[in-house]
Design brief:
One of its GO terms (molecular function) is P-type sodium:potassium-exchanging transporter activity. The chain is built from five helices and no strands. The chain has 141 residues and is mostly helical. The chain has one domain. The chain is elongated, with a radius of gyration of 22 Å.
Length: 141
């Protein structure tokens, strides 16, 4: 307990309740789960977005054309990556967040299909980007 506990017990405790109310534990667990979920969503979004950039630029270079100029990459990284990632970071908790079982602390951030989703989304966005480029080139000429 943060108010009534002694300094010795506070130093060895894993958790200190600042308001001496056990209901605070439930709120803290819910907030921790929300933050963890939002971090995973932001990481998934940023990695899949950047992977699609890398794949698109790689294949465009291999095929002998430039798909994104440096100013385009800068715009994508500064504006279209950061603002949605920030929005994902402050998203509200899902309705069933407290009904889930506790996650394994040894579980990685890419577990539960996040790694596959990053790869899949990155490849799909790259395919769509290259397709849009080729369609635009055909209509231009």
């Amino acid at each position: 307990m943060g108010i009534t506990g002694t300094d010795v017990t506070k130093n060895v405790a894993d958790m200190i309740l600042a308001d001496d109310n056990f209901a605070t534990i439930v709120s803290a667990v819910e907030e921790g789960r929300r933050i963890y979920d939002n971090i995973r969503k932001s990481i998934q979004f940023l990695l899949s977005s950047n992977l699609s950039e890398v794949i698109s630029i790689f294949f465009a270079t291999m095929l002998g054309f430039t798909i994104l100029k440096p100013v385009h990459i800068l715009f994508i990284n500064l504006i279209t990556d950061s603002l949605p990632a920030l929005a994902l970071g402050i998203e509200k908790a899902e309705a069933d967040i407290m009904k889930r079982k506790p996650r394994d602390p040894k579980e990685g951030i890419f577990s539960g299909g996040v790694g596959f989703s990053v790869f899949y989304q990155g490849v799909m966005v790259s395919i769509l980007t290259l397709a849009a480029y080729f369609i635009g080139e055909n209509f231009q000429h």
